[in-house]
Structures are given as structure tokens and as C-alpha cells.
Design brief:
Largest sheet: 2 strands, antiparallel
Number of strands: 6
Number of domains: 4
Radius of gyration: 29 Å
Strand content: under 5%
Number of helices: 29
């Protein structure tokens, strides 16, 4: 009896096991009205700008932005700050659009230009300059966590990743429509597989960190990790939602199911890395001859690992690393992706996100909360899957896409987004301070062909942007709105790391404005190089003039952020950076006072002042015009003249260093 029962149990288990070998199709699921009610998932409203009948209101409102802002201020009994003076305004807008200070000559020309269109002409000039594309590309590179190395232990160099950076610079400079910009990045290889530009753009899908095994140059990290990176960045960069929280389970706060996450991942099931070699046949042959013997020896060593003792394995790993360091740089290539149906990954729900714990299989479909419940999924074998994803994201009626990008632009100009969590429009993010304004701007953005430069002009021409950073009613305003959410004044800000370094080079006269091309490796502390797993990946650029290029063109290596950049809050590039932090701490002051870069550029600045000013008074005036865009005030003049009258040559350098450490230089008002 017992034996028969045991046999029956075993038979039942066998039948269940056999039945479960074919994975189930995950059900689509439904969403309740409450889940769909969150503001970010609702269609954009067509809100009309408020109108004002009083003279003060009509005079202050230059465009609809001002109307929405003024209505919010008056509702709380607040008034806007006075307009900033012209010298302050040109410095502010030049930093916002170029990330560099205006020259003294540019400041003076604008201050003395009394024509009604002077400010509009200034903005148009700044938008047309190549410096604009560089500054705004940097903001986007933060969002997509651009770097030129893999990260993790080995942090392998990506020698051709700079092409993506140049693609982004050109896209912003040429005001490429945003719907086209995002489509090229998600699916450039599908849209035009023979276009060099679009192949480079498709490298967006490979920007995430990549894990590699010891001594192995091949991509040996889990396919799941690669797909995870591709999927998460779509949510963060384009949709402004934390889809990555649904990898292991249904989202705890937002109506994003785990099945939504893997259906979104399904659009990348066919996607594989694709390095398109563009080196000459001779270069490729030379590379092959150099690499083949090294690879053969490495294969033999890996084979011997299986039967080696622990002590021997350590020696073999050391030898593998030595051989790896001898590997020559690969031939020049486009760092792109392509679809490979033969290598397609079947997408399953993964228990706790573990690729070994496969559940129901899924096809591909956008986020369910933004679709009718009966919207079917598509099979992952569908042709051009990423083009289909891009088409859904870039739909004019997608409630997230335009709002997210408009909010990013607003945050860069006003210090904080209308939604202060730019990568999280979900329930754990902040609600918009001006929801009607956000929708109005998003509608204008889409109706204007997804162009950014008209959006910049509208924001920068507003009275809201032109306000002073100080208000005569500050005490009252602080009691009602301490965080300045209602924009009763302009938000003063410190220069970001790249802006600070570039500005020091600019005012000293050393800045090299060369654009594009391979990234530059500058001189760094040898002790930092020793900490790298592969020191050969830091080879200082021989041409010293290249070291003085804009920081955008310095290499962004994940495991070695330049110390100057790190101390001033440069992001780590492992995750999407929606908004730079602005910390204030002692190492920043130490870096500016004692750092090698600041002291070297202070010396160069002092030499410039000596050349351009015959007297101490002229050098003092010139110094302040360069670093602050204005003349020194009486207190500054009295404190500084003692330095310049000192016969000790070191005093002039100390004066220049003091200028670089002043708040007038470090902050934008």
C-alpha cells in the first residue's frame, strides 16, 4: 500500500514536471481607475494662461510662463523680485547656455546696447554658438550615464565611445527634434543600418556599466544584466519613471507590474552588441597578428585552470592579467548594436530578478498603465522592435515623454524642475509645483516639432528668468515659501565641476576650444593610476594643448573620476544622474586654495593681468571684469590693492588665486 502510494506521488510529480517544461504565457493583467489616476499618467491638459488686468501684472507678464508663475505668487500673497541688472543677466544666461563666462568685452557691449531687442539678440547668438551644443550635451550625458569604460573590477576602456558624445553635441547644436533624437538612440541601427551617424547613436543601448570576468576580454557578464541596463535607462531617461524597481517584483508604489518590466525588456530581446570596424585592412591585419598569439596563450592558461590547485590558479590569473595588459587597442570601430534573431533571448518573468529562476514567458508591450487593458503584446520576434518602442515613447499623446524633457530643461535654467525629481514622475517623486505650466510647456514643445531652442528662448525671455536672486521682500517670502518653489526670485547657484574648470581655463586665457574627437587623458597623480586594474588604460595625451580643452572632452572613466571633478560633485556615471548635487564642504576649499590645477591657472591668470594692465588699478579692474563680469566694489578694491602694490612677485599670483576662490567667481547670481 505504501509502495503504491509512493509510486502514485512520483507519477504525479513526473506529470507535473513534464507539463511545466513549456513555459506559460504571463497574463496581461488589469489596472484599476485608482492606479491610472496619478497625475503623470493622465493626458496633458490644455490649460489657458491666466490673464491680468492690472498695470503691474500686464507689465511683468512677457509670455505665458510669467502668467502662470505670477498667478501662483499672487495666490500666496507674494510678488516677484526686481529684474536683475544687465551685467548679472548676461553672465547668468551665458553660463546657462554655454557653461562659460562672458568676456568683459561681451558684457560691456550688452550693458551699453540700449536697443529693445538687445537681450533677444544675445540669446540667439548664444544658441547659435558651438558652445551651446557642448553645454547641453553634457546635461544629457549625465542622464544617460555616459562613460568611456565598463566599470566594475576591470573597467575596460571603450576607445570609440567618444563618437556617441560627439553625436549628442551635434544633435543639440543642430536642434534635432527630440522625437527623432530618442528614436535614433533607441533604434538607429534599425532605422538606417548604413548610416554611420545612426549606428553611433544606437550605442546609447550600450552605455551602461558592463561586468567582465577575470582575464577575459569577451563579454562574459550575465545577459540578464545587459538587458537590465538597456531597460532601466529607458524608464529613467525617456519616461521619468523608476521601472527598474519592478525587476524583482511588482512596483511597491507605482502601478508597474513585474510583467510590465519584462515586456518592456522584450523590445531588447534581439539586441546584441555590434562593433563595426572602420579601420583599414592593413590596420586590421596588424591587430590580428598581434592578438592571435596572446589569445592562444590565454586560452591554454584558462584550460589549465580546471585542474590547477588554488596556489596555481592565483599564478595563472596573474599571468592572464599580464597578457591582457599586452593586448593592443582594438581597431577603430563604431560602438553600436544590431538585431540578431538567431541569438534572441526568450524573455521570462524572473523570480527576484534571478536569471536562474525563470517564470512565465512574455512578449513585448509598453507600460500597461498607459494602455487599454486589452492591448495585446507582440512577439519578441517582431521586426524592428526598438523602432516600435521609440514610436510609442515619441507619440505626441504619450503623457510622460514631453513632460519629462520639458522639466529637464526647466530645471537646468531655474535650478530645480517643476517636478523636482526629474527621473521619477511616480508616486514617490514630487508633485509639480506648477502643473498647468508644465502641461502648457509640454504641449508647446510637441506642437513646435519637439524643438529645444524655441523652448530655451521662451524660458530665458520670461520675466521669471530675468529676476534678481535677491528680493526686497525676502523675509516675508521665506516664511511662506522657503524653498522658492513659486519662483519669487531667481535661484543663485554654484558652478558645476565642468563649468568651474572650464571657467578657470577661460579667464586665464588657456582654454582650447577645439571641438570633437577622441577624449583626452590629462596628467594625474601616479598613485591613482596604480590603483587601476589595468594601468595601461591611462596613457597621457602627448599634445599638452589638448589638456586645456573643455572638460567635456576629457575622458570619463568610471573607476577614475578626476579628483577635481569628484570634489565638486561630478556624478559617478554608474547610474543616471537626473540633477547634480551641490554640496559644500572643506575639501572643496582645500582643492581651490591648494590644488595643483587652481594654483597653476592662478599663475597664468596673474601673467595675463600683468600683460593687460599697466598699473595695479588696471590689473585689479581687469581681474574682476574677467572673473565676475563687473568692476570691483569699494570693499573689494581696498582689500585687493594691497596685493597688487606688493613688490613680491608671488603677491600677484596670490591675488589671482583669491579671485578664483571668490564667491563672485564660483557662483552665478
Amino acid at each position: 500500500m505504501l509502495n503504491r502510494s509512493l509510486a502514485g506521488i512520483l507519477t504525479t510529480v513526473a506529470l507535473l514536471t513534464a507539463a511545466s517544461t513549456e513555459p506559460r504565457i504571463a497574463p496581461l493583467g488589469k489596472y484599476t481607475p485608482a492606479e491610472r489616476r496619478h497625475w503623470a499618467f493622465q493626458a496633458r491638459r490644455d490649460a489657458a494662461p491666466p490673464t491680468f488686468t492690472d498695470a503691474a501684472g500686464r507689465a511683468w507678464v512677457r509670455n505665458p510662463i510669467d502668467a502662470f508663475v505670477l498667478a501662483g505668487l499672487r495666490k500666496q500673497g507674494l510678488a516677484p523680485a526686481p529684474a536683475a541688472d544687465r551685467a548679472t543677466l548676461i553672465r547668468r544666461v551665458t553660463y546657462d547656455l554655454h557653461g562659460l563666462p562672458p568676456t568683459p568685452e561681451q558684457v560691456q557691449a550688452f550693458v551699453h546696447d540700449q536697443s529693445p531687442a538687445a537681450y533677444e539678440k544675445l540669446i540667439d547668438r548664444l544658441l547659435d554658438s558651438p558652445r551651446y551644443g557642448e553645454q547641453w550635451a553634457r546635461h544629457w550625458l549625465d542622464v544617460v550615464r555616459f562613460a568611456e569604460s565598463d566599470g566594475y573590477e576591470y573597467d575596460t576602456h571603450r576607445p570609440d565611445a567618444w563618437r556617441y558624445r560627439d553625436y549628442v553635441v551635434a544633435s543639440f547644436q543642430n536642434d534635432k527634434p527630440y522625437d527623432q533624437f530618442l528614436t535614433e538612440q533607441l533604434a538607429g541601427d534599425e532605422v538606417e543600418p548604413k548610416s554611420d551617424t545612426l549606428l553611433v547613436a544606437s550605442g546609447f543601448n550600450r552605455l551602461g556599466p558592463l561586468r567582465k570576468n577575470a582575464g577575459n576580454q569577451e563579454v562574459a557578464s550575465s545577459r540578464t544584466e545587459v538587458l537590465t541596463e538597456m531597460t532601466n535607462i529607458v524608464g529613467a531617461a525617456f519616461l521619468g519613471v523608476t521601472v527598474g524597481c519592478s525587476r524583482c517584483h511588482d512596483h511597491k508604489f507605482d502601478p508597474i507590474r513585474q510583467s510590465d518590466y519584462y515586456r518592456l525588456q522584450g523590445y531588447f530581446a534581439q539586441t546584441q552588441s555590434h562593433d563595426i570596424v572602420i579601420a583599414s585592412p592593413e590596420e586590421q591585419e596588424a591587430y590580428k597578428k598581434a592578438v592571435e598569439p596572446l589569445e592562444m596563450e590565454m586560452r591554454q592558461l584558462r584550460s589549465s585552470m580546471r585542474r590547477a590547485s588554488e596556489e596555481e590558479k592565483g599564478k595563472i590569473l596573474t599571468k592572464l592579467e599580464e597578457l591582457d595588459e599586452k593586448m593592443p587597442a582594438p581597431p577603430t570601430a563604431f560602438y553600436a548594436v544590431s538585431n540578431s534573431p538567431k541569438e534572441m533571448t526568450q524573455i521570462h518573468l524572473l523570480g527576484r530578478g534571478d536569471y536562474r529562476n525563470k517564470g512565465d514567458k512574455v512578449g513585448m508591450r509598453p507600460l500597461g498603465v498607459l494602455l487599454p487593458d486589452d492591448t495585446p503584446e507582440m512577439p519578441i520576434e517582431t521586426a524592428k522592435p526598438r523602432t516600435r518602442l521609440a514610436a510609442w515613447i515619441a507619440r505626441p499623446d504619450n503623457p510622460l515623454t514631453a513632460r519629462v524633457m520639458v522639466n529637464r530643461i526647466w530645471g537646468c535654467h531655474f535650478g530645480k524642475g517643476i517636478v523636482s525629481t526629474p527621473n521619477d514622475f511616480g508616486r514617490m517623486g514630487t508633485r509639480p509645483t506648477h502643473p498647468e505650466l508644465l502641461d502648457w510647456l509640454a504641449n508647446a514643445y510637441v506642437n513646435g516639432g519637439w524643438k529645444l531652442k524655441p523652448l530655451h528662448r521662451m524660458m530665458l525671455l520670461s520675466s521669471t528668468y530675468r529676476q534678481s536672486s535677491q528680493s526686497p521682500a525676502e523675509k516675508i517670502a521665506m516664511e511662506k515659501d522657503a524653498e522658492n518653489k513659486l519662483l519669487w526670485k531667481w535661484n543663485r547657484r554654484r558652478l558645476e565641476a565642468e563649468e568651474l574648470r572650464d571657467s578657470m581655463l577661460a579667464v586665464s586665457g588657456k582654454l582650447n576650444l577645439k571641438t570633437g574627437g577622441p577624449s583626452v587623458m590629462t596628467n594625474i597623480d601616479p598613485e591613482l593610476i596604480k590603483d587601476l586594474k589595468r594601468p595601461q588604460y591611462w596613457v597621457t595625451t602627448r599634445d599638452k594643448s589638448e589638456h586645456d580643452r573643455r572638460t567635456l572632452y576629457l575622458i570619463y572613466k568610471r573607476n577614475l573620476i578626476l579628483p577635481f571633478m569628484q570634489v565638486f560633485d561630478s556624478p559617478d556615471t554608474l547610474l543616471s544622474c537626473a540633477r547634480r548635487d551641490q554640496s559644500t564642504h572643506a575639501p572643496q576649499a582645500l582643492e581651490m586654495m591648494n590644488g595643483k590645477l587652481s594654483n597653476e591657472l592662478a599663475r597664468v591668470l596673474s601673467e595675463r593681468l600683468a600683460r593687460e594692465g599697466a598699473t595695479s588699478a588696471e590689473r585689479l579692474e581687469r581681474g574682476f571684469r574677467l572673473i565676475a563680469g563687473r568692476a570691483p566694489n569699494a570693499r573689494e578694491r581696498k582689500a585687493a590693492i594691497a596685493y597688487l602694490d606688493d613688490p613680491d612677485p608671488a603677491a600677484a599670483t596670490e591675488f589671482a588665486l583669491t579671485l578664483l576662490n571668490s564667491n563672485a567667481f564660483l557662483y552665478v547670481n
